[in-house]
Amino acid sequence: QPYQHYLSAYVSFFEAGRAEELMPDPFFSRNEKLESRFGPSLSSLSSQTLGAAMDAAEGGCRFEEGHDYTGIDILTIPSSTQEQCCRVCRRFNQRSPGSCAVAVLSSEHDDPPMACWVKSQIQAAESKQGVVACIPEEK
Fold first, then answer.
1. Are strands 102-105 and 61-77 parallel, antiparallel or unpaired?
2. Nearest to 101 by CA among 78, 124, 127
3. DSSP annotation string for 86-122
4. Each residue of 61-100: pLDDT tens digit?
């Protein structure tokens, strides 16, 4: 049973509330997590306010309602908002400049609904009701 030790170690981490250390959130840097968790000046801020402050410091996205872009999908995130979609695209570009050309938030009537489709390349643009294109802006 070579995996028995691994499984028991995982269970111990999970029960101790440390599972996040095993699988950190890939869309946020370690510093953001530490600041939001331990920073005395940030502890009173809501996560929405903190996210908005980080967005302002890093630049944002231009949102184009009703615009869909087809292209090469590199990631799909279900149940997103346009702000989350923008942040994910910018994170890709921070790690590898130009890796996210656009992120498109699907409409509530699409399958899956309100999903963020991160694209590395744009092949075509089209009008589509209910979708929002999130085009990262450089700061």
1. unpaired
2. 124
3. HHHHHHHHHHSTTS-SEEEEPPTTSSSTT-EEEEEEE
4. 999 999 999 999 999 999 999 999 999 999 999 988 999 9
